[in-house]
């Protein structure tokens, strides 16, 4: 019985006598350089310099898939590069602001929130966060705050938790305005615009994150204190929206930052869904009480 010769594709195997080694990905290219992992020829385009020798791109890709993924302290995937979600939120807000200036009242009227509109057009609870008052001060402050806080929170918590926090805080801000407004006053019909509720949700969450990491949060506390005072002394600022967003941020921040390590994903999902359901229930109860009030006075 004879033993067949080893195939030329086996690691470390040389070419058959008279056979010219070619790159398996580019069969028209001769290559005498072999991958240190699989032993196959690799042309210059398919070579990746390793600590020792050369690896082919296929082996590098396979090693990347099998390598353990780096994660943050809070279990989020560690990502390099730009804060995609933060930049997207800023971009949408700026685009909406431009449309407000170019389309007149049409764009603002379609997205603005007021308590009396929320029951029949509930999307306004969120869309108002992408509108801003005329002039650059309002949008400038909110987008600056989002840019300062957003990237670090997005990296620490991960993209889906960050966007959930922002969206629910924005809704929470609009809801708090509704809960504290009376249908017997002008507050029930007053329009609300701005990302302040969402931004204050980020403030609330970063307070918890900094505390969880043992870092100094005094700067955030000072900023919150200043804005709390401004909300009562400067007309046109909705302290109710700030409060609603801030409370949502605190609750989700605690859930995201203090979840037990083995159950971080489950706790984060449960907390996000739970807060969303709570907001819906509170809104439903408020509008039911308002309907009963109208029935009584009507």
TrEMBL record:
It is found in: Membrane. Keywords: Hydrolase, Membrane, Protease, Transmembrane, Transmembrane helix. The keyword Zinc does not apply. This is Rhomboid family intramembrane serine protease. The chain crosses the membrane at residues 84-103, 123-150, 162-182, 188-210, 217-237, 243-259, 271-296. It is a multi-pass membrane protein. InterPro entries: Peptidase_S54_rhomboid_dom (IPR022764), Rhomboid-like_sf (IPR035952), Rhomboid_protease_S54 (IPR050925). One of its GO terms (biological process) is proteolysis. Residues 120-256 form the Peptidase S54 rhomboid domain. Belongs to the peptidase S54 family. Residues 10-21 have a biased composition (Low complexity). It comes from the Bacteria. GO terms for cellular component: membrane. Its main location: membrane. GO terms for molecular function: serine-type endopeptidase activity. Residues 1-21 are annotated as: Disordered. It comes from Actinotalea soli.
